[in-house]
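Subject: Sanity check before I submit

Could someone independently write out the structure tokens for this chain? I want to compare against mine line by line before I put it in a report. The sequence has 116 residues.
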Amino acid sequence: MKVIFHRGFGVITLVLSLIVVAIVVFIAMALYTGQGSLGPEDIRTPVERARSVECEALVRKVKIQVDLYRFENDRYPQHLGVLEGLSDTDLRCPVTDTPYQYDNESGRVWCPAHER
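---
Independent answer below. Compare away.
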């Protein structure tokens, strides 16, 4: 009896491969568009997350300037406008264009749109 070996993919193997590829593409698209279920904080799209990170970085920059002011003057500034090295755009959220909130008693700076 002669044994014949087939080369290449069989129909069943090809169909299974296509199903696996389709599942991977579906999962990737769900995560990229923000429709994935990774948790309540990860519902946003990657672009929204990037903008939120940009806002958090600006808030940190302003906090550093507030701390430098306090170190030099032994008190917190009365308002954020007196800080040197910051433009008016540095004092506003790049996503919503709302001004950052500031408490001159504690030196706390936060964005009302991205507060955690």
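---
OP: Matches mine. For the report I'm noting this point. The first strand starts at residue 101 and ends at 103.
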